[in-house]
Write the structure tokens for this entry.
Amino acid sequence: MARDKVILAYSGGLDTSVAVKWINEKYDLDVVTFTCDLGQGRDIDKIKEKALRTGAVDAVIEDDRNMFVDFFVWPSLMAGTMYEGKYPLATALGRPLIAHRMVEAAEEHGAVAVAHGCTGKGNDQVRFDVSFQTLAPQLKVIAPVREWKWTRTEELNYAKEHGIEVEATKESIYSVDQNLWGRSVEAGVLEDPWVAPPEDAYRWTTNPLEAPDKPVEIEIEFEQGRPVGLDGEELDAVVLIERLNEIGGQHGVGRIDHVENRLVGIKSREIYEAPAAVILHDAHRELEFLTLSRQSLRFKSYVSQAVSDIIYDGLWFAQFHQDLMGFVEKNQRFVTGVVRVQLYKGTCTVVGRKSEHSLYSKELATYEEGDEFPHETAIGFIKIHGLAQQTQARQQLLKSEPTIRPARIMPPSKEKS
Ligand code: ARG
């Protein structure tokens, strides 16, 4: 009789390869691996072959790069999400997509469970589990790495005993995850937040000190908040991001060093490389400064922060997320135009912007000929603007200060009698 099936998120690395065998043995399930291309730069046909050699009964591979950009990356760019103002959320954006596709694969294959190779210490387990639990609560979730709690040596021994290929070149001393939107690097010497990241932590970006001496200037076109072209050429979204990663990387742009607050309550030191994300966020924000009102910009910054936390915390499929994105989509309808960006030795500087919906008015701003600003009405405006403060100063600030009673948030303990 055929065994029940599980869909395992499979990267082709050691953990998930060992997981194929381990799930077979421990749970007596047939493993169907699932691998999608989100632009992580690995050959997924090879990954498929490896999965089958390792004992998977079937190996699903698919190219989800367009879906990733259209439904995850662009909306997050439009929302202006940078976790804690620094991390463009590449990994966090990939997880709900993978979970969603795995749930669909589970349905197609009649699987009873889904599995992933996340540890019990990170955010990714939360993102996967919460997404599975939301989209398909009937599926059992198996997380081998979280369960087996092995040291690396123990894991290598298991691999050896079970004839699982271990790549000869010791992959890396770091833990790395990457997709189109960025690369994250943790562990090894990076665990000391005082230690400067060694050059070998970086793969996508040139050291800014060694980047070309000549700056390069690029023009990015946006339509309703979405990037659509580069230097006057309309481009496929995936290609656009790849090109910016390439050119930004050459100029050393997109290195991020962050001591980050994980959802599970710890701080961790992370290195990111995300040239395209950094360039596009900078350019997009500048176009917003040109096309959104002051009020709209202020409110948007709250929304950006809320959406960043939602994405980071693995709550992608929350109704509240959808509601906030309703605002974002509406708010972006005039964010159309072109931004000129200069890349130079690790910096990304916006040096020009234009839009058919620009709110910048030369006639109002100029100090030269043709000034249309109503100077005479400024006096009345200022009078009213300062009125409340004037009253307050007379009644309070300019009088002698009353002494302050200290505010305490803990009541004293009752005396024991
Ligand atoms: N700290 C980042 C996040 O939580 C990156 C995680 C990278 N994941 C990994 N499995 N190495 O989104």
